[in-house]
Every structure is written in structure tokens, then in C-alpha cells.
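Supplementary Methods, section 5.1.

A reviewer requested that the exact input to the structure prediction be made available. We therefore reproduce it here, unchanged from the version used in the analyses.
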Amino acid sequence: MGRREKELDPGAGPVQAFAHELRQLRSTAGNPPYRELARQAGFSAPTLSEAAAGRRLPSLQVVLAYATACGSEPAAWERRWRSAQEDAARETVDEQDTAASPYRGLRRYETSDQALFFGRESLVEELRTLTAAHRFVALVGASGSGKSSILRAGLIPALRDPEAPGPAPAVIRICTPGSDPDSTLIPLSAPADADGDTLLIIDQFEELFTLQDDRSLQDKIIDRLLTACTTDRLRILIAVRADFFGHCAGHTGLARVINQTHLLTSAMTRAQLRAAVTRPAAGVGLVVERALTDRILADVAAEPGSLPLMSHALLEVWRRRSGKTLTLAAYEAIDGVHGAIAHTAEAVFANLSETEADLARTMLLRLISPSHDGADTRRPVPRSEFIADEPRTAVLERLIAARLLSVDADTVELAHEALITAWPRLHQWVTSERDRLHEHRRLTEAADTWETLERDSGALYRGVLLAVAREYFLPDDQPVDELNHSEKEFLLASALAHETEMREATRTARRVRLLSFLLIVLTTSALAVWLTWFLNREHP
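The structure derived from this sequence is encoded cell-by-cell as follows.
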């Protein structure tokens, strides 16, 4: 018997994941010794063993021979190998990106990116002044106008600048509402025990309205935030998408407070856009062709929500740079600002098998909160909401590695909402399945509530809700694959409870009919006895 192979962690990277898949293939084939595989493959046993060791990506020829010797389809393994090669290359590039790229793509700019953040200096100063003068301020702008980056790479460094005029906050906290805003926002609204003000920055405030529908909870949280900032030690700044500003107006107190204390994130001027394109590159010794700058400005100048598209396109151009120059030719090769995201996403999608592509589709749709009457939004999802089997985990990691998804602690979300509209494939999925997505979001929330209530039968679906859910997700009484474990159990428990109640109702109806029949018989018999007695009495 050969020496036992070292264990592999498929989550350690694309090379290790690919080696793990090769080992699984050999296991499926009955774990033939490598010497036996070598006779069929035409490569030595050590070469085949090294291919599944996870130290480096094997050559395509070795992989195809390995797969054929194990009785698998070579074409499928060629696709897997090319995908692993792309992921490994991207992993290397991503490491370079972190250290060297002057652009952040779809990711927001963080406080550490201050030296790369240009074009918003005047707006940052307006926001700093407004925050110093008022206890509650709102930053309002279209999706893709750069609000999150303004807060992190612009405002926070400006507030921490020792040469900035006026007193600086003693403590700065930044968060998003998330799916449980009560436990997220309220604890952070207590001022820190420090000399000076605490500034609470609530980014993506629209999540308070998109991630749950409980209006009373929304009002309660807003009331508590407004009350908290009336103290002398707390200031609150919210950043909210312009298309959700009307939701803020629906709360009388919030509307009154921010009526005079909101700042609109306007479209950047050509000069500001030029600075955002050229100055980050200049800061790391790169040159942007004038023709490229002019072309980008022409493509995005009239679209305030296109900044993440521009940043992603510049990152892709940087990856294809010619020496120290970012060129128009590279920009055109990725189809410009509006095609870059689709170009990146489709490149990833093309390397997925049919099964993997279907898994990617269900994962991506789970990360979207479809709108009833406005723009669709991204939906942060805890990793625990995804089915944690090996195929899905591998697909999820590939989407993350491609920067289509971002991970924050244990939460996964789309890298930017621009993906929803800028990637035609994803946009078509959302548009064609909007009603189904609404029902899936409702089912997820109901299953979560059921689990929170320790699976109380009173929280199960009944009536119309159950009928609609069964139509979408329980055809032929078998739950569809896109549901996770909790959703499946909730729906099956609801269906079982309904059937139990129906059987009990049928039995009860039968008992009622039987009792009614017996009552009629007894009544008839009693009446007959009485009539006989009465007639005998009248005619003795």
C-alpha cells in the first residue's frame, strides 16, 4: 500500500481546490494505485501523484491523462483546469492589486486609501462643516455616486486631520443597518466614555427599509436615533440612496431634522473626474494616455451613478497596462466603462460547468433584494444562509476571487449594486424572476422567524402564503434545490401541518355528519314513540 497522501484544504486556494477535485475523482474511480494509473495515462506515478498534491497547478496534459485514466470526461476537466488556472492567476494579480493598483474596482475606498481618493475634496469639506454644525446630517446620492468611499476615504481622514479647523470627534463609529438593525444600530448610539463627541456614521441607511418590512420597527429605531443625538455627546451622519430619500420623509421627526441638514452628492465635474482618473496613477508612477482620459470622461460625465463602473474599468486597464502607461487600446479591449463589468463577469461564467453555472445563478439571486416599485438593491447575506456543500462553496469562492462578491466578516454581498444593471445576464435573471424572488425573500424571512421562535407551529405558512410557496418551491411535494436547509424544513413542516389539519378537519366533519345522523335517527325514533303513545291515548 502506498504512503497516505497529506490532507488538503480546498478552501486554501484554487490550486489546493483543484488538487482536492482530482483526489475526489480518483476516489470515485475506486482509489486505484498511482502505478496502475501511470500505465493507462502515459505519465509516471510520481507525476500523477504530484498533480494531486496541491503544491502547484499541474499541466493540462497531465490533468487530461489523469482524468482519462480515472474514467472521466477530458473536456470537462479541461474546463476545470482552465478555470483553476484563471483563479490562480487572478489570486496572484489580486495580491498585486492590494499593494500596487491605484484603483479599487467595484470595492469602496477605505480610510487607508486616502492617498488614492481624488475629485471629492470640496464635497468632503462641505460634509465636514455640516457635521460639525448639526447633530443629525444626511448624505444623499444616487447608487454609484461614491457615498461609501466619500465617508471612508474622504470624511474620516479629514476629521482625523490634526490641522483641520474646529474640534474633532473623540470617537468615530461606522456601520450599516444590516438585517438586524435593532441590535446593530442601537448599541452604537450610546456615546463613548471619552472627552468630546462620538460620531456615528450609518452607511447604506436604506437597508433599514429594504432588508425588513416591519414599519413599526423602522419607526422605533429612527425615534431612538433621533432621541440619542439630542445629547451633547453624540452626532449622527446617515448616507442614503436618493431613491430611498422619500422613505425618510415618511417619518415626520426624521424629515423635520434633515430638511435643512442634508447634502446631495452631485455628479462630478469634468475636472473632478479627470483628477479621479489621472492622479491615482500619477501617485504610483503611471501615466494615463490623454486619449483614454478623454474617452472615459465622455463615457461617464453625464452619469452620476457610473463611478464604480469607471473604477472597475480602470482596474482592468491597469491589469492590461503597457509598461507604465494605461492605454486606450486596453480600455477598448474590455468594451469600455459599460462593458468592463459584463466582460469580467462573463469571463468567470464561461469557465463554469452547466451545473456550476446554475449554482452561481441561484447564489447571485439570493444576494438581491428585488424592488416592488424602484431600483433593485443588493442584500447582505450571512454565509450560514448558503448551503455549505463542496460544489456550492467552490463556486462561491470563485465569485469572491473574481471580485464579483465581497466578504465582510461572515457576510457575503454583491461587490456593488452596479452589477445588477451593468451585467446583462444578471439583470435578465432578476427581471424575469422578480415575482419568484419576492416570494423567496418572504420565505427566507419566515423561516428565520420560525427558527427564532424555536420552530413554533404558529409561525408556519398557512392559506394563500403556503399555496403560493408550494407552487414556486415545492413542486410534486419535493423542495427545489435553491432552498437552503432551514427553508426546506420550514416549507415541508408547513405543508405537513396543513395536511394534518386537513385530515383532522375531514375527520371532524365525518364525526359531525355521523352525530347529526344519529341525532336525526334518535329524534325520529323518539317522535315515533311519542306519536304511538299519543294515538293510543286518544283511541284506547
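Residues 485-538 form the longest helix (54 residues). These observations are discussed further in the main text.
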